[in-house]
Amino acid sequence: MPATAQPRINLALQGGGAHGAFTWGVLDALLADGRVGFEGISGTSAGAMNAIALADGWLKGGADGARQSLADFWLAIADSSPFSSQGDDSDSPPTALKLMLGWTDYLTPEQLNPLDLNPLRDIVTAQFDFAALRRDTRHKLFIAATHANTGKLRLFRNAELSAEALLASACLPMLHRTVIIDGEPYWDGGYSANPAVFPLLFECQAEDNLLVLLTPLHLGETPSTAPDTRHRLREMSFNATFLREMRMFAHLREHIRPNRVPAWLRRWLPESTLDRRI
């Protein structure tokens, strides 16, 4: 009997800094299981890093190569941190890191880092073969960045993939210099899409989409300190674009044909692929 084709799904990978290592665990489990393949992968910031790591590793060695690529990337990120552990179980950041983050309220990235040192850029350029990704990747990739002067979403697709596009997707303007691509300035994609889900519906054939979220939908108690308030504002800002897109899909569900057709007649009318996805 002929082998059953492996079902494919799309992946939407949210950004969230070091919390992106959670997404690594999710992807590693899916790759190890092997029962589903991936068609489209949309990612923002850390989600974009995971998307590129998976696709690059797949080119080099299939599912095992993708698992190794993800592991190599996140272990390199851990090794590159200039801030040592506090040696306890505290969830608070090291004192040196808190001091540096405080300076970002008063100093630009150019002033804080005049030599433009960026360990992430070194890791990305050393590990990923962007020329091969542009030419050969089997996955449809959508890397989100935000135009710094308009707030508009920019999606970098397969033919546009580059180290600069990936760094733009993770460019927090308080910490990193604005990334310039083709003369245009870009910041973190989370300001405009975290992640972008619509290209998975409109540009891919797979009907199922798996969203890996890093920011909780319910954020807990109301913050009562200035640092907690700033942290909550960042969480809400990066979740707002995702929630807005989900609300749009909910409205679409209310307006597509099946909800406006009597139940007895619905089974006689063909259902489009887009209807099923939404």
Please supply descriptive tags for the structure shown above.
278 residues, alpha/beta, seven-stranded mixed sheet
Number of strands: 7
Largest sheet: 7 strands, mixed
Mean pLDDT: 85
**Which percent range fits the helix content?**
40-55%
CATH superfamily placement of the domain at 8-79 and 116-216: Cytosolic phospholipase A2 catalytic domain
CATH architecture of the domain at 8-79 and 116-216: 3-Layer(aba) Sandwich
Shape: globular
Q: CATH class of the domain at 8-79 and 116-216, anyone?
A: Alpha Beta
Strand content: 5-15%
Order of helices and strands: EHEHHHHHEEHEEHEHHH
Low-pLDDT stretches: 83-90
Distance between the termini: 34 Å
- C-alpha Rg (nearest Å): 20 Å
| Annotated CATH topology of the domain at 8-79 and 116-216 | Cytosolic phospholipase A2 catalytic domain
Briefly note the structural class of the backbone: alpha/beta
**Number of helices, counting only DSSP H or I runs of 4 residues or more:** 11
Structure description:
- With 278 residues, the chain is of the alpha/beta class.
- The protein has a domain of 173 residues: Cytosolic phospholipase A2 catalytic domain, CATH 3.40.1090.
- It contains 11 helices and 7 strands.
- Strands 1, 2, 3, 4, 5, 6 and 7 form a 7-stranded mixed sheet that branches.
- Strand 5 and strand 6 form a beta hairpin.
- Helix 1 crosses helix 2 and helix 2 packs across helix 5.
- The chain is globular.
- The relative contact order is 0.14.
